[in-house]
Prior knowledge:
The chain is α/β, with parallel strands linked by helices and 148 residues long. It has 6 helices and 7 strands, in the order αββαββααβαββα. The protein has a single domain (4-147), classed as CBS-domain. 35% of the residues lie in helices and 20% in strands. It has a 4-stranded mixed sheet with strand order 1-7-6-5.
Amino acid sequence: MISLYSGEFLGLSVKDLMIPSERVAHVQVGNSLEHALLVLTKSGYTAIPVLDPHYRLLGLISTPIIMDSILGLERIEFEQLDTKKVQNAMNTEIPRINVNSTLQSSLDLLVDHPFLCIEDESGIFEGILTRRTVLLKLSNQVKRNNRK
Ligand code: 2BA
């Protein structure tokens, strides 16, 4: 039986596993949907954070959201990419976690969300916690326990 209790996994702080903001692809709230689609395509990610000029977290933008917002009755209206703004299309109902929270409190959220945005007390974006990072840590922990 593998016990995952102990500070070694569940007690970790999200800060320990965070991808820091400077390594996270993001867009600014005033950017056009064309710019957002460019960043998404070039980075290879399907969804990325939206920030304001003060680096506060406002929401997420994704390729499906962009496609949906330029979907006309009979065709995709690509000419709208240039005029529509990220702020009118982004999803603002996103889970947020504090930089000092533990991994245990984030696990339930990661079931439904591929990544969680991390912010400090004043809402400044600090980075993201991804499923990959957590699963990698868990996998290493299980291997280490099996060797004991
Ligand atoms: P997705 O873009 O849907 O990516 C799903 C998974 O595919 C990723 O899981 C990762 O394992 C792989 N993947 C996709 N694009 C990749 C790339 N350019 N380089 C390496 N691996 C790539 P996770 O790593 O757990 O990430 C979960 C979600 O977190 C991603 O979903 C994306 O929306 C976001 N994400 C991860 N790293 C990011 C970063 N540096 N900047 C912005 N968003 C990021």
